[in-house]
Amino acid sequence: MDGGAGTRDVQERLDTVEAELEEVDLQIAVLQQKKAELHRRRDALLQRLEEACDAAQPSSSSQASRGEPAASRQEMQRFDGSDFPWSQEVVQHLQDTFHLPRFRPLQLRAINLTLSGRDVFLVMPTGRGKSLCYQLPALCSKGLTLVVTPLVSLMEDQLMYLQSISVSAAMLNASSSKEHAKSVMAGMTDPTVPFRLVYVTPEKIAKSKLLMSRLEKAYKAELLSRIAVDEVHCCSQWGHDFRPDYKLLGILKRQFPKVPLIGLTATATSTILKDCEKILSVRQPVTITASFNRTNLYYEVRVKNCDSDASVEDMASLIKSKYQHQSGIVYVFSQKDAESVSSALQKRGILASPYHANMDPTDKSHVHRRWSTNKIQVFSSSLGTVYVMGFFDVHVNVVTPPITTG
């Protein structure tokens, strides 16, 4: 074959490939643009679906369950409005402090009710913004908001978030130093309100006479604006997470009857809420129940490789291909599995860490903070440990079931 002819043939074929690549690049650009548009349309439709589901499942008053007249739909809809004395401040904090463009369904209703001095039970799925319903009112009130929460990890999550948006908050638990506890308790009666929110465990309420004394002084000085009871279903023996110390929280409403209480849960049934109402000494609370249609969640079932190494390899490939730079959780059956899986993922270039009950509390907090700030992409943990951690992270995009299942 002539050398010149051969070169021309190769050049022609190269030109053809280059032209095809340009065409493919153009098609990719068009598809990416279409994908972005479809994402926008999907998000808008999900928002409409979420709002429609909530509208179809309006809030109800627990008075009706006792034969008393329930709050009417018209009365409840009034609390969806923005014609209250605090409405302008509420919107300002929503946008400037919490950096949110709008409220999710039923959030504004709960906020207006608690700012009106009503006792509220809020039943809303995890991730739908229950915490905002007491955090934002705390900034629109004169004094502090006392938040009772069952787990230190829940407190740490909330404090990390509030600190990131420059909201003053503090927590008290069994591991708090004497100096820290003294500082927080002094702040509770300070007219300048150095802490807008103070997080405590139910055990602290039950066992600390000094804390109750400080709360009494704050109440008399009108510096105790609100009581929020997170995971309120823990009050009831019928609840799946019953905590004995929660049964002692009725002292709060008995000693501070003029302070509105808001109880929050993602799981309580009407029977459990009736029980909570009695235990907390709350009379005629308004119950707000949001839709449990989780439009942002989907499930995918994948065939698991029987070989454990191959299974971890598949998991690592999935994380790298679909969830790069996103947070995730890998469920395992034991602490040993948590250690081995995180180690295997680390060897495959993924920032992973174990999280289990036998870890030192300081190490657990360190993992928690690194994961919450995306310095760790994935943590592996047993089902039981994760269920009681209460991690709050709006960036979690992948949850992998136990990998040791057959």
UniProtKB/TrEMBL annotation:
Subcellular location: Nucleus
SMART domains: DEXDc
Database matches in Pfam families: DEAD
Reaction catalysed by this enzyme: Couples ATP hydrolysis with the unwinding of duplex DNA by translocating in the 3'-5' direction; ATP + H2O = ADP + phosphate + H(+)
All copies of domain Helicase ATP-binding, residue ranges: 111-286
Region annotation (Disordered) ranges: 52-76
CDD domains associated with the record: DEXHc_RecQ1 (cd18015)
Enzyme type, top EC level: isomerase
Main location (coarse class): nucleus
GO cellular component: chromosome; cytoplasm; nucleus
Coiled-coil ranges (or none): none
Protein keywords: ATP-binding, DNA-binding, Helicase, Hydrolase, Isomerase, Metal-binding, Nucleotide-binding, Nucleus
GO biological process entries: double-strand break repair via homologous recombination
Cofactor: Mn(2+); Mg(2+)
PROSITE patterns: HELICASE_ATP_BIND_1
GO molecular function list: 3'-5' DNA helicase activity; ATP binding; DNA binding; four-way junction helicase activity; hydrolase activity; metal ion binding
Keyword ATP-binding applies: yes
Biased segments, Low complexity type: 55-65
EC number assigned by the record: 5.6.2.4
Family: Belongs to the helicase family. RecQ subfamily.
PANTHER family on file: ATP-DEPENDENT DNA HELICASE Q1 (PTHR13710:SF105), DNA HELICASE RECQ FAMILY MEMBER (PTHR13710)
Name of the molecule in the record: DNA 3'-5' helicase
Organism expressing this protein natively: Takifugu flavidus
